[in-house]
Amino acid sequence: MAKVIVLQHEPFEKLGIVADALRSHAISYEYIRSYEGQSVPRHIGEADGLIVMGGSMGVYEHHWYPFLLAEIKLIETAIEKSKPVLGVCLGSQLLATALGARVTKAPKKEIGWYPVRLRPALAADRLFGSAPESFVAFHWHGDFFEVPSGAAPLASSELTEHQAFRYGEKAYGLLFHMEATRPIVEDMVKGFAEELAEEHIDGQTIISQAATFLPGLHEIGRQVFNGWAELVLNR
What we know:
By secondary structure, the chain is α/β, with parallel strands linked by helices. It has helices spanning 17-24, 67-80, 90-98, 182-191, 193-199, 203-233; strands at residues 2-8, 27-33, 49-52, 85-88, 103-118, 134-145, 152-156, 164-167, 171-174.
């Protein structure tokens, strides 16, 4: 059975519907919970892929979160070994960093439900080829990445020029959250309540809007994550 490693940074930032795609392709997964002090593997080993989830820390805060440096090294190893990589939110920023791109604080945090626009020339992309040109996604980030050298930019939003990129054929970074379920949204609103208060954002509005936007987002997300699972099986 194929297996992927999942780097988790917050108890409530889980695989969500990514897990459904993995299970439907008979791919097992192992969480490495960095926030609990679990050691990040030094090498990708026999794992067939790597998923890096979101988190509240910044990639540049490794002096407070030293495990981030180990995660960047693991991402580099996965890319060197041509293993599929999927980075979500913080994970996309760590992937960008591993590929030599800059990650910095954004002028304004992007939290809530906002449209994402895909690049016009994505018809041939294995994950996003059948996705609509624009859709509403769930966002929760205060940093943004530059697209790594040699990578293909995939998406943007009104506030953030680069929302997704592909490096080679097997590494994808998504700044937005396609994986989120309603429980994950609720847990993030609860877990990051202080941040919402600082930004004067109503968490209950975010939760109530989930009923409107999650079904459409999940329809696209299933296509994307099933496509990534196929990369794992066909690597």
